[in-house]
Each structure stands twice: as C-alpha cells, then as structure tokens.
Design goal:
This protein is of the alpha+beta class. The chain has eight helices and 20 strands. The chain folds into two domains: about 120 residues, Rossmann fold, CATH 3.40.50; about 220 residues, Sandwich (Jelly Rolls). Helices cover about 15% and strands about 25% of the residues. The two termini are about 35 Å apart.
C-alpha cells in the first residue's frame, strides 16, 4: 500500500505474500467461492473487539475440532455459524464477507491492483507456489505493477514455499517433497539481502533476472527476463473419452456425475481439525476413487514438458440444478521407479497423483462477478476461468492428469446447487444435481497449458 505515489524517501519495497483481491483469489474467496475453513478459524480470533492493546489474541468462542470435514458438515448451512455457540453475530468481518457475496463496491474498494500506479521505488515481489492464503496476491501484484508501470524496477521471486516460509531458517523439505537445498537461505542470501543492501545502503550490486522462479518438477531455480516467459506456447489438452487427456478434440459423449451436497468431495485425505497445509501437493488418488470426480490422463510422456504461467480452463457443462461449483486440478502422475521413490518417498505405485495446481469457480459468476446468473437446467453452458501460474516440469515417463469435481470441502463452502443466497440458505435449499462435462465438437472441454519451448 506504500507503493502508489510513494514518498521520495522510500527507495525499496518488497511485497511478500501481499493480499491483492480477496474476492478473486486471496484469503476470503476464490472466483466467488467462499473459503470456509480458513475464514471460520481466522475470524474467530481476528474479529475479537480490541478497544485496547492485548497481551495475546483471544477467541470469540472456544473451538476444538478433531475432524473439520465432519464438523462443518454437521454445522450445516453457512447461516448456522451465527448460532449462539459460535459467532452469534459478534464477528463484523465474518458478516461482511457473507453479506457481500458478489463483486460489489465492498470488494472492489479492497482490490489494490488499480491503485498500483506511479510506482517509483524498486520492487521485489515474493511469493510461494504452495501459499494457501496469498499465491494469487503475489502473482497479481507483480503483474499489476508491470502492466501499469512499464519503467518501474519490478522483480518477482516464487519459491516452493508456504505462507512466509522464505523467512524460515531452513526450507529444504515440505511434506514428502525434498528440494535438495535450503531454498529459504538461498533466497535471503542471493536476493533479499543484496536487494536491500543495494537500494537502501548503496552496498554491492543487484542485477538478478526479472523473474527468479523455482521449478517444482525439477527442483531447480530458473531465471527469466519476464513472467510469464516469452517462450511459451498454449497447448490444449482436451477431456476425452475413456478417461483420456488428448491434444486433439474428441467426439466422445458427455461424462456425468452426481454431485451431492450431503457428501461433498473432501479437499484432503487427512483427517484434521485445521487446514492441512500440504493439500496443495497432496496425492489425489483419494479423490480419483470417488464417483463424483472425473479423471483424464495422458499417455506417459516421451520427453519432459515444462509448463510456465497461468493455466486456462474452458469447460462446457450442464447441471440439473441452477448453480454449481467447478474444481479443476492439474496433477503430475509419477511412474514407479527407484529414482522416483527416492525423490518422492510417498510414491508407492504407478498411479501416484501429485497435485500441481487446483482452484474452484462458482458457476453463477461465469458471465459476471457483479451480476450472478442461474444455470438453465441441463443446457450446455461454457465456464471459463484461470488457474494460478505454475512452473513445473513434467518429466519423461510421467503423465499429465486433470480432475474435475464440484465440491472441495470444507476448504470451500458447499454450493446448494440451487440459485439462492448461499449466506442465508436453508438446509432444504441444498440439492443433489447431475453434472455433465461435454466433449463433442463445439462443446469441447479443454485445459490450456502454457508450454515452454
């Protein structure tokens, strides 16, 4: 927030995991879908009134959850969070988040991107590929500065980090992943410290590439003169018949599944009270086994393929209801080999499915985030959106896999699958719906990947 029309004395700024647009992709909502698990926990303490300084954070209500999936399923509709034993209408921010369920003036005023003009200080934007809170923020802060300030000194660093992990003493591993190096120390030694020494103390030099990015498939730092890199070409991957992911459209009929709000797809296989921080890299076989998750995969790659940039999703869908969510995942399927088992200790079969990127889209916003629209039941309808950037090399012998589903619970709140105000919906508003994903010419569902030449 200090960047626009900055005071001349401000020479260098490093936005790190910046909150940029909370309706589109940061903490509160993603593409209009409410991130229930994080916000329920966060606002329980953050929304406590503080008329004077406190020695420690307090909670609005005592909360001990052993199984978040079961807890939020038992909680029922969102409005039940204001029952006396929970928020009881004491949480101003919680109520505002639910009240403002479209991209109205409330959210637009909190989107800093249009204000990132007149940027004069040197900028080093830092984010983590596995930041469950503000991955969107880092990428889009950099993009907004770049677009609106073509002469600004603006650099981007993206590492294999969760929220703020670049400040940890050691970040050489995350869950089952072993990066083979202390990525946090590398960043501080070669980028952050030289950046501030040069611009604040006139010490040394600072001439890194504009974009320093960690390839999450090869475990290597890569540098580029711009982000996304100029040398990418969009490559379509079509959702085909018999679970195939192909580079040419097919004539296969639609796939379908029954989406039941009473049995939503879990976002993780782990039973935890809070968010599983490793869900962004988790093996997705637990989801692939469900009948309400569609899976499409390529043949084993004959050579390595590097994807660099945002991922385009273009689905043709229908629902027997009047609203639906769509979650699309890009997954790296690991071959079973001694080398793979060493690098990825959790690989136990040919079908290990490591999540690379995923996000949700609330279907009512397919034409406008300001003016939601109901679906016409059983009518093929286009839903287009973008998944956050990746830099990931799918190695030779691996497969690309795409999953499609309509719930991601309780990370994301349940869609009633009827066109109602979800914040005030009753239990009776939540209905099963048959979702169809179309694949024929003219209605081909496709994921566009920016492939690095």
């Amino acid at each position: 927030a200090s960047l626009p029309a900055a005071h001349p004395a401000l020479k260098a700024v490093s936005p790190q995991a910046p909150v940029t647009d909370e309706f589109m992709g940061d903490d509160a909502r993603h593409n209009g879908a409410f991130f229930l698990l994080d916000n329920f926990d966060f606002t329980n303490s953050f929304d406590v009134p503080r008329p004077q300084p406190l020695a420690r954070y307090e909670d609005l209500f005592p909360l001990k959850i052993a199984d978040a999936y079961q807890f939020f399923l038992n909680l029922g509709p969102l409005k039940n969070a204001n029952q006396p034993q929970y928020f009881n209408n004491r949480a101003r921010i919680w109520n505002e988040y639910l009240q403002h369920d479209t991209y109205d003036a409330y959210w637009q005023a909190r989107n800093i991107r249009p204000s990132l003009t007149g940027v004069r200080p040197a900028v080093l934007v830092v984010g983590g590929w596995y930041d469950a809170e503000d991955l969107f923020g880092a990428l889009h802060t950099y993009q907004a500065i770049e677009k609106q300030n073509p002469k600004a000194t603006n650099r981007l660093v993206m590492g294999p980090w969760t929220h703020g992990a670049w400040s940890r003493p050691n970040w050489s591993k995350f869950g089952p992943l072993n990066f083979g190096q202390n990525t946090a120390e590398y960043y501080r030694r070669t980028l952050e410290t030289p950046f501030f020494n040069y611009y604040l103390k006139d010490k040394g030099s600072f001439n890194p590439a504009e974009a320093t990015m960690f390839d999450t498939g090869s475990n290597e730092w890569k540098t580029y003169p711009a982000w996304p890199p100029a040398g990418t070409q969009p490559r379509p991957y079509y959702l085909g018949g018999a679970g195939q992911l192909t580079t040419a459209p097919t004539t296969a009929p639609a796939d379908e599944y029954l989406s039941d709000p009473a049995h939503p797809v879990p976002y993780t296989a782990s039973i935890q009270g809070g968010r599983n921080n490793e869900y962004m890299i988790e093996d997705q076989r637990f989801a692939a086994q469900r009948p309400d998750v569609l899976t499409y995969q390529t043949e084993p790659l004959t050579k390595a393929l590097t994807v660099a940039g945002p991922l385009g999703v273009d689905l043709w869908v229908s629902t027997s209801g009047t609203d639906a969510d769509f979650v699309v995942k890009l997954i790296d399927v690991l071959p079973d080999s001694a080398a793979t088992r060493t690098l990825y200790p959790y690989a136990s079969s040919t079908s290990t499915q490591r999540l690379v990127r995923a996000d949700v889209f609330r279907g009512r916003f397919r034409n406008s985030f300001e003016k939601p629209e109901a679906f016409q039941p059983n009518v093929p309808t286009e839903v287009k959106y973008e998944l956050n950037d990746v830099l990931h090399t799918f190695k030779k012998g691996h497969r690309l896999l795409v999953q499609v589903q309509s719930s991601w619970f309780p990370l994301v709140d349940r869609n009633p699958q009827s066109f109602v105000n979800i914040s005030t919906a009753e239990a009776a508003d939540f209905k099963k719906a048959t979702i169809r994903i179309y694949r024929e010419p003219g209605h081909a569902s496709v994921v566009q990947l920016p492939v690095l030449k």
